[in-house]
């Protein structure tokens, strides 16, 4: 950004004219669906296979081959639509979109034009801004054209025909930061819906941006499309370059520089966008209804079945955790980090009936274990500690059978696969000692020589008792019930205050 | 002086990636124009109460189970390619990012 | 001829199963007829002698090893297939320089079913390039000649299949019909040709021309052979999403197959208009009288949108064709010309060099009617007129069981007569495209002769059209007509010694 512009919140303010400029941003996001086979043929969907090893007559566009729609792709697409609150159409169909390029073997892409399977819906950002979705449609992916190996372009069609959903947002976003937040939220929804991995590294999530600028309060101006954005960072960087570029062009007043309707490419290494084609060269896609694929009815029963398969979305879960379970925002966020952790937590909470304790154990101790490279668990589901086991451990603590210190030790053993909490506690003799005589003996011993503590307590500073609880716990080998120890100590100090017989 | 019939043929040919030479344009343009003139009769048909007929078999909702079946051996597919190398189709260098 | 006087596929199979002749002998007779006749006819683009012989020997061995074992419905029957049907290991040139060397890596469902029924594919037949044409003159490999008069066109685009059956080189062949490409050459060559209800025969492996119109159909010298082939190739195919979820077409077996009592036969004034050839009119009128003799009742019907069928068809079919043929770009298969060294330049040079004029004309027309600013007025409107054409038929079929008329407005025309005039060529399809647009079943069967030149009479075809799914009814009417007439018996005089 040049010195003539400075960011103030969502606006770019011109030092020359004082004009407050804002961005007008819409996103088109392509996400691969996590199906076993491609959208219109039975070839496997797999990343990293040898080139052209996952192809057949259909996905290579051999003459005479015909597409047949993958039922699972339709289901996952509908689930995503439901997750963003979109309206699922009663009827949908496919269309052919024509353009000539070496990575689409038929020189048309099977997509959806005027009857997408869903319209509407949207995503709410942390600021409260609601980003509307225009539509989501299903389409087939292109193959991969490789330009950086030798003097020719090489084409690999393994990816050709993989199921994609394209989500098109309204131009409701204003800043690069919001664009990234929207993308992250969409990614989270796709993952939560079980629709896809949405891993940008693997090219499972790709994004085109529409962007224009306008002085605050004024009407929209000419929009520019930016393609080839392969990471969240690229989206941010491209917008951070493009928005000031357009503002400066308008501020310059030079008609030759004015933004025109065009498609630009982001050059990640230079951090700039460049003209790819102008409006005059715009594509004429010649859409028409795909005659090889009959129309699709999305019955209420089908949509409801997909809704049943859709788990609660992270935003809704976090709200419920805070409002109904009384968890902190921090815990709610940690617990909804992945769908597996949230499902796990809910199972534990349900089994033991103590959501706060369950939250503590899952968010802290278990998450630590999960992060431990020695444990080598890829996800929480791979830990040997099942929700039932953790619930049992929480119950043991609640019942006073073991104390928290002991429970941590037990959990460590559980993570190492040593058995159920009850078995471990029994085998290792970790039960709390509640026996009054033993506890009193340890307490008397500990009080000896700690007259000051007794004096403080008598003076009303009961907190001081902590200094004696520690030695008692140590003497008991950690097995003393700290609550009982506290009670006994207070009683002994009080008794000591009485005149001796 | 431009000839609109010839321009239309050139524009359409470019869209269709047909590289017509001038002699072909000379030959095809009048034929193309004659066909369009003849077909203009469609404009006179009263179609307001007709829905577009996009398919002929009337079947609907044809879906396939999401099952993987073996792909073809790369050689079987690449064997038909005019140029291939190391398991890839080979085409003239292009800048990329077309779509 | 295939070696036995007047024998059709059903006879040949029966003779092989009865041990009267072997599959190998049957095949050799077919190969000999091809050898003798095809030099002048040009019906075949390739003859698969070696694989066919190996297969015949295998069939005979199987038969010898276990004479009681089940034999396929086309056991040992030599069959020719149109050059737009994919078959693994065989070149499928589709009448085009573009695919001159294309060997599909898979087999079309209809061909697979022929093979599963123990048929022997003897060769691949000539056709107008990408099935676009009505005369064979648009084949990149030269025209096929009409066996009845070598100076005339055999019709098209299933030209080679019709000529091969008419000349007795094979008893049956597969063609494809988009706007009449099975029925019209059948009529012009004096054989039977059937276009099924859209969706009854799988299009998997049929190189697409107009996807919403294309149907594979058989050509044969007897109606029962048409029925037999359809019984093999029709029926649901999960690899074609537009395939109807129905079992194969079963022939109707009426108590009195020779009679048509109670059948209401529709006659449309629009099909016997002023531009109909006088001799064709005479033959078709005689055929209608014959049907009445058999007990049918003639009923006048109106098909008012017929006059718009040709423009509607050429807009819809070329739009789909422009899309279907976009894939031929020099990357994955087919011909390639490098051009100016750029990718798009290679595409354009490849397409320029390997497509013929008619294909280019149709790609241009189809691209135009889909392009921005013209789409709604042309393509969109044509789809609506298409619906009206279908509605015409639906209304007519409320009153009648079948509709009969000529297949082609003229008998075989001289090669070269229409080649330079696309609109005159398109007019050849006037009577066949309405049923294609409506997706209906229709058959062409021989119904007489026009005088032609000198001593070579030219066959005339009767077209029998049924409502959707009434494929078997259409064939039953054709069978009754065939059994009451002799029009299917004469063979072209030039058709070799065997006849």
Q: What would you say this structure looks like, in words?
A:
The complex is a heterotrimer of chains A (501), B (99) and C (499). Chain A is α+β, with helices and mostly antiparallel strands. Chain A folds into three domains: 5-220 and 284-297, no CATH class; 311-428, no CATH class; 436-497, Orthogonal Bundle (Arc Repressor Mutant, subunit A), CATH 1.10.10. Chain A is built from 15 helices and 20 strands. In chain A, the strands form four sheets. In chain A, strands 1, 2, 3, 5, 9, 10, 11, 14, 15, 16, 17 and 18 form a twelve-stranded mixed β-sheet that branches. In chain A, α7 crosses α9 (387-398), α12 crosses α14 and α12 (436-447) crosses α15. Chain B has 99 residues and is α+β, with helices and mostly antiparallel strands. Chain B has three helices and three strands, in the order ααβαββ. Chain B has a two-stranded antiparallel ribbon. The model of chain B has no long low-confidence stretch (mean pLDDT 90). Chain C has two domains: 9-265 and 397-484, Amidase signature (AS) domain (Amidase signature (AS) enzymes, Alpha-Beta Complex), CATH 3.90.1300; 307-386, no CATH class. Chain C contains 15 helices and eleven strands. Mean pLDDT of chain C is 95; it is low at 1-5 and 495-499. Chain C is globular, with a radius of gyration of 21 Å. At the A-B interface, β4, α1, β13 and β20 of A face β1, α3 and β3 of B.
Can I get a quick summary?
Chain A is α+β, with helices and mostly antiparallel strands.
Annotated CATH topology of the domain at 4-44 in chain B: Histone, subunit A
Which structural category do the helix and sheet elements of chain B fall into? alpha+beta
What kind of assembly state do the chains in view correspond to?
A: heterotrimer
What is the beta-strand fraction of chain A? 15-25%
CATH architecture of the domain at 4-44 in chain B: Orthogonal Bundle
Low-confidence segments of chain A, given as residue ranges, are: none
Number of helices of chain B: 3
What separation lies between the terminal Cα atoms of chain B? 36 Å
Number of helices of chain A: 15
The mean pLDDT of chain A is: 90
Number of E-type strands of chain A: 20
| Alpha carbon gyration radius of chain A | 31 Å
CATH class group of the domain at 4-44 in chain B: Mainly Alpha
Would you tell me the overall average pLDDT of chain B?
90
């Amino acid at each position: 950004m040049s010195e003539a512009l400075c960011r103030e919140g969502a606006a770019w303010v011109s030092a020359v004219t004082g004009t407050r400029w804002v961005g007008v941003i819409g996103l088109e996001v392509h996400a691969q669906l996590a199906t076993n086979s491609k959208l219109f043929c039975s070839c496997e969907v797999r990343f990293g296979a040898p080139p052209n090893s996952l192809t057949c007559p259909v996905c290579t566009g051999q003459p005479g081959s015909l597409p047949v729609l993958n039922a699972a792709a339709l289901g996952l697409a509908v689930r995503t639509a439901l997750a963003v609150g979109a309206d699922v159409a009663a009827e949908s169909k496919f269309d052919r979109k024509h353009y000539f390029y070496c990575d689409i073997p038929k020189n048309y892409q099977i997509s959806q034009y005027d009857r997408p399977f869903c319209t509407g819906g949207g995503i709410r950002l942390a600021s409260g801004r609601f980003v509307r979705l225009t539509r989501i449609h299903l389409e087939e992916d292109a193959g991969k054209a490789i330009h950086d190996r030798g003097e020719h372009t090489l084409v690999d069609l393994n990816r050709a025909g993989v199921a994609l959903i394209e989500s098109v947002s309204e131009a409701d976003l204003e800043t690069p930061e919001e664009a990234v937040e929207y993308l992250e939220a969409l990614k989270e929804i796709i993952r939560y819906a079980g629709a896809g991995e949405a891993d940008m590294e693997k090219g499972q999530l790709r994004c085109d941006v529409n962007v224009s600028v306008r002085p605050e309060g004024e009407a929209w101006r000419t929009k520019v499309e930016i393609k080839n954005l392969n990471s969240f960072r690229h989206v941010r960087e491209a917008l951070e370059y493009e928005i000031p570029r357009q503002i400066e062009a308008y501020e310059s007043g030079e008609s030759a520089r004015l933004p025109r309707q065009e498609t630009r490419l982001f050059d990640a290494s230079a951090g700039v966008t460049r003209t790819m084609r102008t409006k005059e060269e715009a594509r004429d896609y010649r859409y028409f209804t795909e005659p090889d694929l009959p129309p699709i009815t999305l019955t209420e029963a089908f949509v409801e079945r997909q809704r049943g398969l859709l788990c609660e979305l992270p935003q809704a879960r976090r709200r419920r955790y805070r409002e109904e379970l009384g968890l902190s925002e921090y815990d709610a966020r940690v617990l909804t980090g992945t769908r597996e952790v949230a499902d796990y937590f809910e199972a534990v909470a349900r089994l033991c009936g103590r959501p706060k304790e369950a939250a503590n154990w899952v968010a802290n101790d278990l998450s630590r274990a999960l992060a431990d490279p020695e444990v080598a668990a890829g996800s929480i589901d791979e830990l040997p500690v099942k929700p039932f086991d953790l619930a049992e451990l929480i119950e043991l603590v609640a019942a006073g059978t073991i104390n928290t210190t002991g429970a941590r030790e037990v959990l460590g053993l559980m993570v190492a696969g040593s058995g159920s909490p009850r078995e471990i506690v029994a085998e290792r003799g970790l039960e709390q000692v509640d026996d009054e005589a033993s506890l009193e003996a340890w307490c008397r011993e500990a009080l000896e020589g700690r007259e000051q503590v007794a004096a403080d307590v008598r003076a009303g500073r009961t907190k001081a008792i902590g200094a004696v609880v520690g030695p008692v716990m140590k003497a008991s080998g950690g097995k003393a019930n700290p609550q009982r120890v506290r009670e006994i100590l207070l009683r002994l100090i009080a008794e000591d205050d009485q005149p001796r017989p | 002086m431009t000839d609109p019939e010839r321009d239309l043929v050139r524009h359409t040919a470019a869209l269709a990636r047909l590289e017509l030479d001038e002699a072909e344009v000379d030959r095809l343009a009048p034929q193309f124009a004659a066909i369009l003139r003849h077909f203009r009769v469609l404009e006179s048909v009263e179609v307001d109460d007709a829905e577009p007929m996009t398919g002929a078999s009337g079947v609907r909702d044809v879906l396939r189970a999401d099952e993987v079946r073996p792909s073809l051996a790369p050689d079987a597919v690449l064997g038909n390619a005019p140029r291939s190398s190391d398991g890839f189709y080979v085409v003239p260098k292009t800048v990329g990012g077309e779509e | 001829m295939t070696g036995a006087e007047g024998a059709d596929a059903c006879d040949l199979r029966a003779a092989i199963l009865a041990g009267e002749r072997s599959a190998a002998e049957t095949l050799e007779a077919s190969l000999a007829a091809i050898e003798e006749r095809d030099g002048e006819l040009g019906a075949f683009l390739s003859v698969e002698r070696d694989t066919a012989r190996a297969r015949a020997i295998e069939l005979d061995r199987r038969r010898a090893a276990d004479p009681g074992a089940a034999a396929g419905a086309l056991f040992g029957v030599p069959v020719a297939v149109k050059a737009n049907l994919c078959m693994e290991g065989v070149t499928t040139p589709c009448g085009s320089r573009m695919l001159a060397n294309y060997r599909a890596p898979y087999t079309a469902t209809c061909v697979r079913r022929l093979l599963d029924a123990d048929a022997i594919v003897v060769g691949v037949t000539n056709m107008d390039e990408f099935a676009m044409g009505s005369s064979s003159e648009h084949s990149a490999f030269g025209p096929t000649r009409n066996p009845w008069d070598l100076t005339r066109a055999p019709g098209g685009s299933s030209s080679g299949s019709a000529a091969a059956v008419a000349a007795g080189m094979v008893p049956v062949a597969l063609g494809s019909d988009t706007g009449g490409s099975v029925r019209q050459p059948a009529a012009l060559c004096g054989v039977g040709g059937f276009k099924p209800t859209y969706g009854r025969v799988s299009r998997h492996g049929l190189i697409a021309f107009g996807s919403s119109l294309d149907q594979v159909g058989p050509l044969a010298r007897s109606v029962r052979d048409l029925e037999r082939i359809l019984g093999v190739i029709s029926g649901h195919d999960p690899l074609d999403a537009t395939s109807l979820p129905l079992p194969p077409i079963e022939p109707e077996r009426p108590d009195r197959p020779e009679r048509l009592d109670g059948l209401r036969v529709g006659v449309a004034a629009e099909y016997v208009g002023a531009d109909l050839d006088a001799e064709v009119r005479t033959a078709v009128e005689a055929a209608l009288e014959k049907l009445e003799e058999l007990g049918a009742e003639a009923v006048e019907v109106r098909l008012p949108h017929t006059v718009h069928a040709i423009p509607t068809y050429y807009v819809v079919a070329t739009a789909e064709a422009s899309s279907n043929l976009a894939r031929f770009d020099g990357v994955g298969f087919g011909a390639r010309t490098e051009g100016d060294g750029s990718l798009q330049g290679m595409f354009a040079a490849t397409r320029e060099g390997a497509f013929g004029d008619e294909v280019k004309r149709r790609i241009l027309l189809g691209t135009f009617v889909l392009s921005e600013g013209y789409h709604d007025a042309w393509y969109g409107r044509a789809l609506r007129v298409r619906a009206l054409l279908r509605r015409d038929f639906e209304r007519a079929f409320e009153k009648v069981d079948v509709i009969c008329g000529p297949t082609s407005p003229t008998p075989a025309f001289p090669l070269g007569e229409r080649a330079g005039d696309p609109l005159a060529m398109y007019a050849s399809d006037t009577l066949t495209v309405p049923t294609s647009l409506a997706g209906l079943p229709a058959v062409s069967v021989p119904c007489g002769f026009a005088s032609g030149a000198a001593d070579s009479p030219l066959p005339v075809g009767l077209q029998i059209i049924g409502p959707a799914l009434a494929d078997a009814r259409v064939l039953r009417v054709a069978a009754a007509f065939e059994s009451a007439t002799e029009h299917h018996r004469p063979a072209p005089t030039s058709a070799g010694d065997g006849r």
